[in-house]
Amino acid sequence: MADRRQFLRTLGGAAALSFTANIRSFGSARQLSMSMAMPNTGEHDRLQPEWCQRKIKQVQTEMKKHRLNAMVLLHASNVIYTTGYFHLSTERPLAVLIPDSGEPVLFIPGLESDQVKLWWVKDYEAYFDYPGPVNRVRWIFERITKRGLGRGRIGVEEPTPSRLRHMKEGAPKAAIVDAEDIIDNLRWIKDEDELRIMRRAMYFADFTVQAGREFIEKNGSVTEDQILKASADAVADKMSKELNDVVGVGIEPPFGGLVPFGKRSAFPHAVPSKDQLKKGDALILSFGAQVGGYNVECERSFSIGKPNDYATEEPRPNPQGRIREISQAPNRPRDRPRRPRITLDRRG
């Protein structure tokens, strides 16, 4: 099975990843220091209109297979995926209409009326505000009916009963079809443009873990909330300096990442605490970074100083449910070869 270094070399490709490593020793404990560089090629850090236009055509091809005359997407993630129109999703419905041929149409709240003009989709209709005299989902489907699609087959994401009722009130003679799988299935296959954006996100996710490790090495006995804040601050500064586009960017907010240590490192999704790190603790640093709407996570396991014999024991059945301190990478099948353990020696 390929290790992480081989994986990064393979994944890097056109992104020109470079990887260096060195090992330092602290007595019998060893520290593997790794650095990864992804040069800023000057390309956009979001998918461009040309990509979105190709994606719309792919959706239309799939629509024909399902005999759909139109598709209406109301989930913000799907609107962004197909059109690239990033926006702050609120209680105000915002939708994209994709006809079986031609250009898409956006239906937006009035608050978006100026911002929408900055993007490539030029056909849009706006309502004044929410909730308004008419349910806004019903309003969207009334506008779709006026565009001549009121008697056709309209694909939608799986709706709640109340939302479906409003759709049918706006387009009573249309056949409303659950066609959410069309978008979900297209997401399964990433093209090179998407992979490049994901590599950029990977670069920042890895940096966040590195920043957390360096903060611990410098400051010693810190708390989980301090690690989270320092890591978020570091990656926010780095993103601000290096990203060419900052839409669709996400950083784990303070108290948003996973940095449990000691016995709490056994919790798969541990919420943060005010516990203080001490020698011998197992530590997990797990962070995500989002670039251009694509999120990548990086998680690494550490030991503070030399792990004790108990921490390095092979996993075994635990009928008593006792929490086990570990320094091995979590969730790894026992029959896989072990990776080098990365240990931190607390100084200062």
By CATH's scheme, which homologous superfamily of the largest domain applies? Creatinase/methionine aminopeptidase superfamily
Number of domains: 2
Q: What's the CATH class label of the largest domain?
A: Alpha Beta
Question: What can be said about the biggest beta sheet?
Answer: 6 strands, mixed
Strand order of the largest sheet: 6-5-4-3-7-8
Tell me about this structure.
The chain is α/β, with parallel strands linked by helices. It folds into two domains: 49-187, Creatinase/prolidase N-terminal domain (Creatine Amidinohydrolase, Chain A, domain 1, 3-Layer(aba) Sandwich); 193-315 and 324-344, Alpha-Beta Complex (Creatine Amidinohydrolase), CATH 3.90.230.10. The chain contains eight helices and twelve strands. A six-stranded mixed β-sheet has the order 6-5-4-3-7-8. Strand 10 and strand 11 form a beta hairpin.
Can you describe this structure in just a few lines?
This protein is α/β, with parallel strands linked by helices and 348 residues long. The protein has helices at 4-12, 49-65, 76-83, 136-149, 161-170, 180-187, 192-219, 224-242, and strands at 18-26, 29-37, 70-73, 95-99, 105-109, 124-127, 153-156, 175-178, 250-251, 282-291, 294-304, 342-344.
Keywords, separated by commas or semicolons:
348 residues; alpha/beta; Creatine Amidinohydrolase, Chain A, domain 1; Creatine Amidinohydrolase; 2 domains; 6-stranded mixed β-sheet; 4-stranded mixed β-sheet; 12 strands; 32% helix; 20% strand; elongated; disordered N terminus
